[in-house]
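help with these C-alpha coordinates:
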Amino acid sequence: MGGRGLIIGGTAVGLAMISYGTGLAQTAWQQVLSFIALEGKPVAASPARLSEHEIQELDHMTPQQQAELLLERAINHYEGGIEAIDTRVGSWRGSLKLDSRLNTLFTSALNANDLRVRAAAIEIDLAANNVEKTTESVNSGIQVLESGEGDRITHLWILGLLGNRGIEPERAFQVLFQYAHDPDTHVRYWAIEGLAYLGTDATIQPLLDIFRNDLSANLRERAACGLAQSGMLQQSQRMKAVPTLLTYLEDPTFDGTNHQWVIQALQDISGQRIGDDPGAWRRWYSSR
Protein backbone atom coordinates (compact mmCIF):
# COMPACT_ATOMS: atom_id res chain seq x y z
CA MET A 1 0.00 0.00 0.00
CA GLY A 2 1.02 3.62 -0.53
CA GLY A 3 1.45 6.18 2.21
CA ARG A 4 -2.20 7.25 2.06
CA GLY A 5 -3.32 3.67 2.65
CA LEU A 6 -0.98 3.36 5.65
CA ILE A 7 -2.29 6.56 7.21
CA ILE A 8 -5.90 5.47 6.81
CA GLY A 9 -5.07 2.02 8.07
CA GLY A 10 -3.28 3.43 11.10
CA THR A 11 -6.17 5.72 11.92
CA ALA A 12 -8.62 2.86 11.68
CA VAL A 13 -6.53 0.64 13.93
CA GLY A 14 -6.18 3.44 16.47
CA LEU A 15 -9.91 4.01 16.59
CA ALA A 16 -10.59 0.33 16.85
CA MET A 17 -8.14 -0.02 19.77
CA ILE A 18 -9.69 2.93 21.59
CA SER A 19 -13.10 1.43 21.12
CA TYR A 20 -12.02 -2.09 21.99
CA GLY A 21 -13.32 -3.21 25.34
CA THR A 22 -16.16 -0.71 25.24
CA GLY A 23 -18.24 -2.69 22.74
CA LEU A 24 -17.99 0.13 20.17
CA ALA A 25 -15.50 -1.36 17.69
CA GLN A 26 -18.14 -1.86 15.03
CA THR A 27 -19.33 1.73 15.41
CA ALA A 28 -15.77 2.98 15.00
CA TRP A 29 -15.35 1.08 11.76
CA GLN A 30 -18.63 2.45 10.44
CA GLN A 31 -17.43 5.97 11.20
CA VAL A 32 -14.16 5.37 9.38
CA LEU A 33 -15.84 3.89 6.34
CA SER A 34 -18.54 6.61 6.08
CA PHE A 35 -20.68 4.05 4.32
CA ILE A 36 -22.92 5.52 1.58
CA ALA A 37 -25.88 3.34 0.66
CA LEU A 38 -26.79 3.00 -3.01
CA GLU A 39 -30.49 3.39 -2.36
CA GLY A 40 -32.15 6.66 -1.41
CA LYS A 41 -31.72 10.25 -2.54
CA PRO A 42 -28.54 11.68 -4.12
CA VAL A 43 -25.80 12.60 -1.65
CA ALA A 44 -23.87 15.71 -2.64
CA ALA A 45 -20.08 15.61 -2.48
CA SER A 46 -19.87 19.42 -2.69
CA PRO A 47 -21.89 22.27 -4.19
CA ALA A 48 -22.47 21.57 -7.88
CA ARG A 49 -21.03 24.74 -9.35
CA LEU A 50 -17.79 25.80 -10.95
CA SER A 51 -15.31 26.78 -8.27
CA GLU A 52 -13.57 30.15 -8.29
CA HIS A 53 -10.30 28.29 -8.73
CA GLU A 54 -11.56 26.53 -11.88
CA ILE A 55 -12.88 29.78 -13.33
CA GLN A 56 -9.53 31.49 -12.75
CA GLU A 57 -7.58 28.58 -14.23
CA LEU A 58 -9.66 28.42 -17.44
CA ASP A 59 -7.82 31.35 -19.01
CA HIS A 60 -4.52 29.52 -18.54
CA MET A 61 -5.75 26.34 -20.25
CA THR A 62 -5.66 25.41 -23.90
CA PRO A 63 -9.00 25.35 -25.77
CA GLN A 64 -8.88 21.55 -25.66
CA GLN A 65 -8.46 21.55 -21.87
CA GLN A 66 -11.20 24.14 -21.45
CA ALA A 67 -13.63 22.11 -23.56
CA GLU A 68 -12.86 18.90 -21.68
CA LEU A 69 -13.26 20.46 -18.24
CA LEU A 70 -16.40 22.41 -19.02
CA LEU A 71 -18.13 19.57 -20.86
CA GLU A 72 -17.40 17.23 -17.95
CA ARG A 73 -18.85 19.82 -15.56
CA ALA A 74 -21.90 20.31 -17.79
CA ILE A 75 -22.55 16.56 -17.89
CA ASN A 76 -22.49 16.54 -14.09
CA HIS A 77 -24.86 19.53 -13.93
CA TYR A 78 -22.37 21.96 -12.42
CA GLU A 79 -23.83 25.45 -12.28
CA GLY A 80 -22.04 27.67 -14.77
CA GLY A 81 -20.66 24.85 -16.92
CA ILE A 82 -23.00 25.21 -19.88
CA GLU A 83 -22.90 28.99 -19.68
CA ALA A 84 -19.10 28.94 -19.80
CA ILE A 85 -19.20 26.71 -22.89
CA ASP A 86 -21.62 29.13 -24.55
CA THR A 87 -19.27 32.04 -23.79
CA ARG A 88 -16.08 30.34 -24.97
CA VAL A 89 -17.02 27.87 -27.73
CA GLY A 90 -16.75 30.47 -30.49
CA SER A 91 -13.06 30.93 -29.71
CA TRP A 92 -12.46 27.16 -29.82
CA ARG A 93 -13.46 26.71 -33.45
CA GLY A 94 -10.64 25.04 -35.35
CA SER A 95 -8.62 24.45 -32.16
CA LEU A 96 -10.32 21.30 -30.86
CA LYS A 97 -9.61 17.68 -31.65
CA LEU A 98 -12.15 14.97 -30.89
CA ASP A 99 -9.51 12.73 -29.38
CA SER A 100 -10.28 9.83 -27.09
CA ARG A 101 -11.08 11.88 -23.99
CA LEU A 102 -13.12 14.65 -25.61
CA ASN A 103 -14.98 12.17 -27.82
CA THR A 104 -15.88 10.09 -24.76
CA LEU A 105 -17.22 13.20 -23.03
CA PHE A 106 -19.02 14.21 -26.22
CA THR A 107 -20.74 10.83 -26.42
CA SER A 108 -21.76 11.03 -22.76
CA ALA A 109 -23.13 14.53 -23.28
CA LEU A 110 -25.22 13.42 -26.28
CA ASN A 111 -26.84 10.85 -23.98
CA ALA A 112 -27.52 13.31 -21.15
CA ASN A 113 -31.11 13.69 -20.04
CA ASP A 114 -30.77 17.48 -20.08
CA LEU A 115 -31.13 18.73 -23.66
CA ARG A 116 -29.04 21.78 -22.74
CA VAL A 117 -26.10 19.43 -22.18
CA ARG A 118 -26.74 17.81 -25.57
CA ALA A 119 -26.87 21.28 -27.14
CA ALA A 120 -23.51 22.12 -25.53
CA ALA A 121 -22.08 18.94 -27.05
CA ILE A 122 -23.41 19.97 -30.46
CA GLU A 123 -21.72 23.37 -30.14
CA ILE A 124 -18.43 21.68 -29.27
CA ASP A 125 -18.72 19.24 -32.18
CA LEU A 126 -19.30 22.09 -34.63
CA ALA A 127 -16.27 23.89 -33.20
CA ALA A 128 -14.16 20.73 -33.45
CA ASN A 129 -15.19 20.36 -37.10
CA ASN A 130 -14.31 24.04 -37.70
CA VAL A 131 -17.85 24.75 -38.89
CA GLU A 132 -19.23 28.28 -38.61
CA LYS A 133 -22.91 28.63 -37.76
CA THR A 134 -23.80 30.43 -40.97
CA THR A 135 -25.97 29.99 -44.04
CA GLU A 136 -22.75 29.61 -46.03
CA SER A 137 -21.91 26.46 -44.06
CA VAL A 138 -25.33 25.02 -44.93
CA ASN A 139 -24.87 25.93 -48.59
CA SER A 140 -21.42 24.35 -48.66
CA GLY A 141 -22.67 21.13 -47.13
CA ILE A 142 -25.58 20.88 -49.56
CA GLN A 143 -23.22 21.45 -52.51
CA VAL A 144 -21.04 18.55 -51.40
CA LEU A 145 -24.07 16.30 -51.01
CA GLU A 146 -25.42 17.23 -54.44
CA SER A 147 -22.05 16.70 -56.09
CA GLY A 148 -21.95 13.08 -54.93
CA GLU A 149 -18.32 13.55 -53.97
CA GLY A 150 -16.61 14.11 -50.66
CA ASP A 151 -17.68 12.99 -47.19
CA ARG A 152 -21.47 12.90 -47.47
CA ILE A 153 -21.80 11.23 -44.06
CA THR A 154 -20.17 14.10 -42.17
CA HIS A 155 -22.15 16.72 -44.07
CA LEU A 156 -25.48 15.02 -43.31
CA TRP A 157 -24.56 15.00 -39.61
CA ILE A 158 -23.37 18.61 -39.63
CA LEU A 159 -26.49 19.71 -41.50
CA GLY A 160 -28.67 18.33 -38.71
CA LEU A 161 -26.54 20.04 -36.05
CA LEU A 162 -26.60 23.39 -37.83
CA GLY A 163 -30.35 23.18 -38.25
CA ASN A 164 -30.74 22.44 -34.56
CA ARG A 165 -28.75 25.55 -33.71
CA GLY A 166 -31.18 27.61 -35.77
CA ILE A 167 -29.25 27.81 -39.05
CA GLU A 168 -31.61 27.13 -41.98
CA PRO A 169 -33.62 24.41 -40.20
CA GLU A 170 -36.24 24.15 -42.97
CA ARG A 171 -33.61 23.61 -45.68
CA ALA A 172 -31.78 21.16 -43.45
CA PHE A 173 -35.00 19.19 -43.03
CA GLN A 174 -35.69 19.06 -46.76
CA VAL A 175 -32.21 17.76 -47.56
CA LEU A 176 -32.13 15.24 -44.71
CA PHE A 177 -35.59 13.98 -45.66
CA GLN A 178 -34.39 13.43 -49.21
CA TYR A 179 -31.32 11.44 -48.16
CA ALA A 180 -33.28 9.45 -45.59
CA HIS A 181 -34.64 7.63 -48.68
CA ASP A 182 -31.28 7.18 -50.43
CA PRO A 183 -30.49 3.70 -51.81
CA ASP A 184 -27.26 3.63 -49.77
CA THR A 185 -28.00 2.28 -46.29
CA HIS A 186 -25.05 4.14 -44.76
CA VAL A 187 -26.27 7.43 -46.19
CA ARG A 188 -29.80 6.79 -44.94
CA TYR A 189 -28.46 6.01 -41.46
CA TRP A 190 -26.78 9.40 -41.12
CA ALA A 191 -29.70 11.24 -42.65
CA ILE A 192 -31.90 9.64 -39.98
CA GLU A 193 -29.43 10.70 -37.29
CA GLY A 194 -29.45 14.19 -38.77
CA LEU A 195 -33.26 14.30 -38.57
CA ALA A 196 -33.18 13.16 -34.95
CA TYR A 197 -30.69 15.87 -33.98
CA LEU A 198 -32.45 18.53 -36.04
CA GLY A 199 -35.21 18.14 -33.47
CA THR A 200 -38.05 20.04 -35.16
CA ASP A 201 -41.71 19.02 -35.26
CA ALA A 202 -41.34 18.34 -38.98
CA THR A 203 -39.04 15.38 -38.25
CA ILE A 204 -41.58 13.39 -36.22
CA GLN A 205 -43.70 11.96 -39.04
CA PRO A 206 -40.72 11.05 -41.26
CA LEU A 207 -39.09 9.21 -38.37
CA LEU A 208 -42.36 7.36 -37.74
CA ASP A 209 -42.56 6.42 -41.42
CA ILE A 210 -38.97 5.18 -41.44
CA PHE A 211 -39.66 3.14 -38.30
CA ARG A 212 -42.63 1.61 -40.07
CA ASN A 213 -41.29 1.08 -43.57
CA ASP A 214 -37.49 1.09 -43.95
CA LEU A 215 -36.14 -2.22 -45.21
CA SER A 216 -33.22 -2.15 -42.75
CA ALA A 217 -33.96 -3.33 -39.20
CA ASN A 218 -30.98 -1.29 -37.99
CA LEU A 219 -32.40 1.90 -39.50
CA ARG A 220 -35.88 1.20 -38.18
CA GLU A 221 -34.36 0.93 -34.72
CA ARG A 222 -32.44 4.19 -35.15
CA ALA A 223 -35.63 6.00 -36.16
CA ALA A 224 -37.38 4.58 -33.10
CA CYS A 225 -34.52 5.73 -30.87
CA GLY A 226 -34.67 9.21 -32.40
CA LEU A 227 -38.35 9.39 -31.55
CA ALA A 228 -38.06 7.91 -28.08
CA GLN A 229 -34.89 9.14 -26.45
CA SER A 230 -31.89 10.12 -28.56
CA GLY A 231 -31.55 13.27 -30.62
CA MET A 232 -32.91 16.70 -29.76
CA LEU A 233 -36.68 16.31 -29.62
CA GLN A 234 -38.18 17.64 -26.41
CA GLN A 235 -40.49 15.54 -24.25
CA SER A 236 -43.58 17.39 -25.49
CA GLN A 237 -42.54 16.75 -29.10
CA ARG A 238 -41.96 13.06 -28.48
CA MET A 239 -45.47 12.78 -27.07
CA LYS A 240 -46.81 13.76 -30.50
CA ALA A 241 -45.54 10.42 -31.82
CA VAL A 242 -47.55 8.40 -29.29
CA PRO A 243 -50.87 8.16 -31.21
CA THR A 244 -49.10 6.64 -34.21
CA LEU A 245 -47.03 4.37 -31.99
CA LEU A 246 -50.28 3.10 -30.46
CA THR A 247 -51.52 2.12 -33.92
CA TYR A 248 -48.18 0.37 -34.51
CA LEU A 249 -48.69 -1.55 -31.27
CA GLU A 250 -51.88 -3.00 -32.72
CA ASP A 251 -50.45 -3.60 -36.21
CA PRO A 252 -50.44 -7.37 -36.94
CA THR A 253 -47.84 -6.92 -39.70
CA PHE A 254 -45.17 -5.87 -37.19
CA ASP A 255 -42.80 -8.72 -36.34
CA GLY A 256 -41.79 -9.50 -32.76
CA THR A 257 -38.71 -7.30 -32.81
CA ASN A 258 -40.53 -4.26 -34.19
CA HIS A 259 -43.36 -4.85 -31.73
CA GLN A 260 -40.86 -4.81 -28.86
CA TRP A 261 -39.31 -1.59 -30.15
CA VAL A 262 -42.74 0.04 -30.15
CA ILE A 263 -43.20 -0.89 -26.50
CA GLN A 264 -39.72 0.38 -25.63
CA ALA A 265 -40.39 3.66 -27.43
CA LEU A 266 -43.66 4.14 -25.58
CA GLN A 267 -41.97 3.37 -22.27
CA ASP A 268 -39.11 5.79 -22.92
CA ILE A 269 -41.43 8.60 -23.98
CA SER A 270 -43.99 8.14 -21.23
CA GLY A 271 -41.92 6.87 -18.32
CA GLN A 272 -44.63 4.22 -17.84
CA ARG A 273 -44.17 0.45 -17.60
CA ILE A 274 -47.52 -0.79 -18.85
CA GLY A 275 -46.42 -3.82 -20.85
CA ASP A 276 -47.72 -4.94 -24.23
CA ASP A 277 -51.46 -4.42 -23.72
CA PRO A 278 -52.63 -1.88 -26.35
CA GLY A 279 -55.83 -1.23 -24.40
CA ALA A 280 -53.87 -0.32 -21.26
CA TRP A 281 -51.68 2.05 -23.25
CA ARG A 282 -54.72 3.72 -24.80
CA ARG A 283 -56.34 4.14 -21.40
CA TRP A 284 -53.17 5.75 -20.10
CA TYR A 285 -53.00 8.12 -23.09
CA SER A 286 -56.69 9.05 -22.77
CA SER A 287 -56.29 9.76 -19.08
CA ARG A 288 -53.54 12.35 -19.61
In short: Residues 1-20 have pLDDT under 50 and may be disordered.
